[in-house]
Write a structure and sequence with these properties.
CATH class of the largest domain: Alpha Beta
Radius of gyration: 20 Å
Number of helices: 7
Number of domains: 2
Strand content: 25-35%
CATH topology of the largest domain: Alpha-Beta Plaits
Distance between the termini: 14 Å
CATH superfamily of the largest domain: Pseudouridine synthase I, catalytic domain, C-terminal subdomain
CATH architecture of the largest domain: 2-Layer Sandwich
Largest sheet: 10 strands, mixed
Number of strands: 10
Shape: globular
Structural class: alpha+beta
């Protein structure tokens, strides 16, 4: 058995999130990221089905520029392990054979057999893209299902001022999801970065319908996040940019530590504007002898 670290990308639009779906969901045509990975790796003709454990569980509709997983591949006594490049090539051909053009294995490397891609992650970076100046239904095609369109022009300075209040260690109970299964998670998180910057529409130079639009990128960095925490933080920052709330309200909401305190005029940002950009590790933990 050889354990590998996998790095992969996907567009989450047609996935039911990361975990494997139930038989009922599969019968209805749904699949999760882990379903796709396991099916593609099965085509390597291993001695046993692969065990794949994804480090970061993105929600349905959320994208990833780099998510990670550790995978245990059992070759059998009479077979040599595949070279990493060969694994990447074969798995990506499998995705295409499966009709999946929305997921790619970008890199794979052998790691120690005790390595855990989830628990040994040092940090995660998320990006949220907001396009202001048009209704969501009129987003240019390159931005459709890849950003959140809002008709109002947003006050970026107010949003940047508000973002500073998130930095450091706080209790994010107000920004956690309401589902009971998430209540056992520690709400105290340390935000290493919360940045808001101007960006460009995809293919802006060539798309005449992008020229009057403004794109904002919201960057969030922490070791870990609560379920939907980034989308709730984004919704609040956009509400501040719309003038519905003030930057100082962030301090009040963090101090409240109540899910019910989250303002009703700050909707949770939709999934399709969110990207997992990176999962960081200590290089020493990845060294395979």
């Amino acid at each position: 058995m050889v354990r590998y670290l996998l790095q992969f990308q996907y567009l989450g639009t047609h996935f039911r999130g990361v975990p494997k779906v139930t038989p009922v969901e599969r019968a209805a045509g749904y699949s999760g990221i882990e379903d796709a990975l396991c099916e593609a790796f099965f085509r390597l003709r291993l001695a046993e089905p692969p065990n794949i454990h994804v480090s970061s569980r993105t929600d349905s509709g959320v994208h990833a520029l780099c998510n990670t997983a550790h995978a245990d591949l059992i070759y059998g006594e009479d077979r040599e392990p595949y070279e990493p490049d060969s694994i990447v090539h074969t798995v990506n051909r499998s995705f295409l054979h499966m009709g999946r053009n929305d997921i790619r294995l970008m890199n794979c490397r052998p790691v120690p057999p005790t390595f855990n891609s989830r628990h040994q992650a040092l940090g995660r970076t998320y990006l949220y893209r907001v396009v202001s100046g048009c209704y969501h239904s009129r987003l240019p095609i390159p931005e459709a299902n890849r950003s959140w369109g809002v008709i109002e022009r947003l006050d970026i300075e107010a949003m940047q001022e508000a973002a500073k209040h998130f930095l450091g260690t706080h209790d994010f109970t107000t920004f956690r999801n309401k589902t009971p299964e998430t209540w056992t998670k520690d709400p105290v998180k340390t935000m290493k970065a919360v940045e808001i910057r101007r960006a460009s529409c995809l293919l802006e130079e060539h798309d005449p319908f992008c020229r009057e639009l403004e794109v904002l990128e919201l960057i969030f960095k922490s070791r870990s996040f609560l379920y939907r925490q980034v989308r709730r933080m984004t919704g609040l920052l956009v509400a501040i940019g719309r003038g519905k709330l003030q930057p100082k309200d962030v301090v009040t909401l963090l101090a409240a530590r109540k899910i019910s305190a989250f303002p009703k005029n700050a909707p949770v940002a939709p999934a399709h504007g969110l990207y997992l950009c990176n999962v960081e590790y200590n290089e020493k933990d990845l060294v395979y002898d």
